[in-house]
Amino acid sequence: MTTLIIARHGNTFNPGDTPTRVGGRTDLPLVEKGETQGRALGRYLREHDLLPDVAYSSTLQRTRKMAELALKEAGMSLPVYALDIFDEIDYGPDENKPEDEVIARVGKEALLLWNEKAIVPDGWRVNPDEIIRNWRRFAHQITKVDDTLTNHLLDIDETVLVVTSNGIARFAPHITDDFEDFLQKFSIKLKTGALGILRFSQNKWSVEDWNIVPILD
Q1: Looking at the DSSP assignment, which residues form a beta bridge with residue 195?
Q2: In the chain, at which end, N or C, are there fewer CB atoms within 10 A of the end residue's CB?
Q3: How much is the average pLDDT of 200-205?
């Protein structure tokens, strides 16, 4: 059975900062609390028997650092493989804008649909179908391996960690082929530093839990 852990990076703004909508064109580092969230993720993985066999992040430093801190806290020395398919989405004219300006441009209803159903507001440079295809291809790659001796695809039994961003993570449950069922059970948005757990068993993906927030030290 393959276990896929999808985590959102930690905080990139300090208390007192004005948070903005940070997309794939902005490469912010984690702030102190974000690093604490990275270590909390590592403790959660260790304490819940979810130690990864392989780890991935986006190419953005906030996700790479989050993964590295989590692995170190979990007592592991795995490399972190950076893939651009996990880079945050492009918020177009709303990149780096505070939320009140974003709401003024797109409206509250548009943001509500984004947060509840992953419907993209006008102007954002996002191709949901491409993101979903990327997740599906990745999910297939981590569940099957080609056995050169038998020329058959064999199931992989491992735990995979992916640290990405909010705009990308919300499309991952499409690999279950029942996104509407997911929406009935869970809130689509991962909080900063939170994670979701998906399992591949009997040739099918399912979401075991979503938006788990590890306890900070």
Answers
A1: 7, 212
A2: C
A3: 92
